[in-house]
Specification:
q64v53_bacfr protein fold; alpha+beta; elongated; 1 helix; 30% strand
């Protein structure tokens, strides 16, 4: 996983934003918003990890061209945004050995005369 964070602060324009990009295999995750908030997250799936990395580099070039500065080291290993997969908590089942079942009593079947 490759995560990078960028920020843009311009007090004159009341701008205080962050932008993060993360690549995980073929997944590209972008998270953005005002600093000190959770922001928004968008995921995009690519055919190959190289394609995801190329798109990340292109987006980084675009953001730095707009004045964003990087605030995280290149290749930072940090979880960003929502988790990819959240597994539900499964309760632990208590198992016990079944009690022996009582033998069934023999049942008498009455004979009937079925003559026509």
């Amino acid at each position: 996983m490759n995560a990078r964070r960028f920020e843009f602060v311009d007090p004159a324009a009341n701008s205080d934003k962050f932008w993060e990009v993360t690549t995980i295999e073929c997944l590209l995750r972008v998270r953005w918003g005002r600093r000190n908030t959770n922001g928004q997250t968008k995921d995009k799936q690519f055919a190959t990890p190289d394609a995801a990395e190329r798109e990340a580099r292109s987006l980084i070039k675009e953001k730095t061209g707009k004045g964003y500065t990087e605030t995280s080291p290149i290749g930072a290993q940090a979880p960003v945004g929502k988790p990819l997969l959240v597994l539900p908590k499964v309760p632990t089942l208590k198992t016990s050995t079944p009690k022996s079942t009582p033998a069934t009593e023999p049942v008498e079947i009455a004979e009937r005369d079925i003559s026509l």
